[in-house]
Amino acid sequence: MFELENAKTTQGLRRIAIEPVSRVEGHGKVTLLLDEHNKIHQVRLHIVEFRGFEVFIKGRPYWEVPVTVQRLCGICPVSHQLAACKAMDVIIGAKQLTPTAEKLRRLMHYGQIVQSNAVHFYHLASPDLLLGFDSEVAQRNIIGVALKYPDIAKQGILLRKYGQEVIHHVAGKRIHGTGAVPGGVNKALTKAERDILKKNLPQLIEWAQGGIELVQRLHEANPSFYNTFGLFDSNMMGMVREDGALDLYHGYLCAKDAKGKPIFSRLNYETYTQVLREEVKPWSYMKFPYIAELGPENGWYKVGPLARLQTCDFIPSPLAEAARQTMLSFGNGQPIHSTLCYHWARIIEVLHGLEVIQSLLEDPDVLGTDLTVKGERQEEGVGVIEAPRGILVHHYKVNEDDQVSMCNLIVSTTHNNQAMNSAIRSVAMQHLDRRIISEGLLNHIECAIRAYDPCLSCATHALGKMPLQVELLNAEGKRLSLLSRDSTGTLHSADLHA
Amino acid sequence: MPEVLLTAWGNASRTDDALGPNLLHLLETWASSVGIAQYFEWVEDFQLQIEHALYLEGKTLALYVDASQNISAPFSFSLLSPLQQPWHTTHAMPPESVLAVSQLLSHSPPCPAFLLCLKGENFNIGEGLSPSAQCHLQATLPFAQRLLQNPSPNAWLTFCRP
Questions:
Q1: Is residue A6 part of a domain?
Q2: What is the total count of domains within chain B?
Q3: Which of A42, A214, A229, A312 could form a disulfide with A246 if both were Cys (CB 3.0 to 4.6 A apart)?
Q4: Cα B136 vs. chain centroid, distance in angstroms?
Q5: Above 50 in pLDDT, residue A461?
Q6: Chain-chain contact of B88 with A141 (C-beta, under 8 angstroms)
Q7: Is residue A441 domain-resident?
């Protein structure tokens, strides 16, 4: 049981709801239970949407899946497409893509990282960071930033636009493109397109470096706040290459504990079902994953920029690695767990993404035309990718008629479920407990969630697997009976009359 | 850099919502064939967002092309004015808000901007225009070509129609 997850009693407690949580993708809400002295007894992040993809994808031909699953999300469709394609590569026996296909997929993916991380940092997070967590709410948005810091806002908009242009040229469209297919890609990059993408890269890299310097200055200006806001210790998970380098497209799963000690370091992601479990709680539509051998109490972890920049041994691009070393030096030899450092890590990844794109555009393979391969047909495939928000798992089984018979998705935000709940509980105790609650203070809670850049519409339970709970209360609010459905669909009832 | 901006938006998977982008494609093909495409910046998207304000930098004239149910067939053409709205709370912005963002960022009025709306009837999920939208598209094309042949605010003001 986690502290502040369940109040000992709800009687006499006042409920505050932040609904919807703003400047995040999808819909969620936070509830707080407080007593008459504003002492906080319970804090929860609830996910109030559900998705149906695991169900309605069944029976569809496997080659449709990479296109269909993009509709899970308007923010990171490329990540879903690529994770599905990687799983379908296995299904069609494409063990090794052509160099052109793999490099074009990487180009697409790092374009996605740049655009998604830029939109989060500049559009969604910078209003809090630059204008203040409790600044005037009507100004606390990207337009407010544009008015006060026009150059920063413009750079953010153009960085995002560049990431979208990379996706557009490689995938055919900025959103819901069809560039990646099982076994490779279906569109070659022309020299003219390559040259367009190369054109402004030095300027963009300079702006990303400016973004990193900005975050560093913010941390240096108020270290006690930045180092402690939403602070909690946890395990961390990310994807790395064989040599320990950060790799956002393909590699091994690597997990470390809160002190940086390895839990596992080169795990083949196809074995994820042996290592990860998901716990269901009746008050949220989002599951709670954990490392099986450590159990739900101790095995939960965080993913995403701050986690993966600390699970890897190095970033394989020089400017971003130098920036990572600077960030890590703020931990004085210990892993960094401050929630606001997610922003720092995220903008470092923008720089890394641009460096990778620059390197790929210099590679003659990206102009090749050998685009697809196939091999011996398999029945089951797992694809894992580091989406902007963290590890994304797609797992499918396909029957002999080429129809999907099983689909399981663990999206990035789901991995961060317990971490986000821990962050808001930490913030509630630090900034809200026993104080008069104001909008600005409630925004502190949202800032903690926002730091994880959650995609709540992706991260919900599959249709039919939502735990539900119905309570019958009497006029005094006393519970008379309870009916609940667990994640397997089994109903449980408890008549409390007796 | 081209001084005239042409921006069309809509979702090709929402039937007649694709009218704007479809007209832009026809116009671009035609403009290339008559050798004037380079005088225009061509922008297509699903929705308008704040980044579209950046396209207005250095422009002397802008045309926004959309589909609408609430106009007379086959199209309407009108002058736009900047309008501040709580745009940051929504996924999509109207062109008037894009102009307002441009004004905020540049501290000066945006260039004259016009809205060309094509009449659509079916905005349900599905690909391909409805038959009536096809007719409206063909009926609008000569008018839009005339706009591109006369790219000046004064000329476009005389073309306005409800």
A1: no
A2: 1
A3: A312
A4: 15
A5: no
A6: yes
A7: no
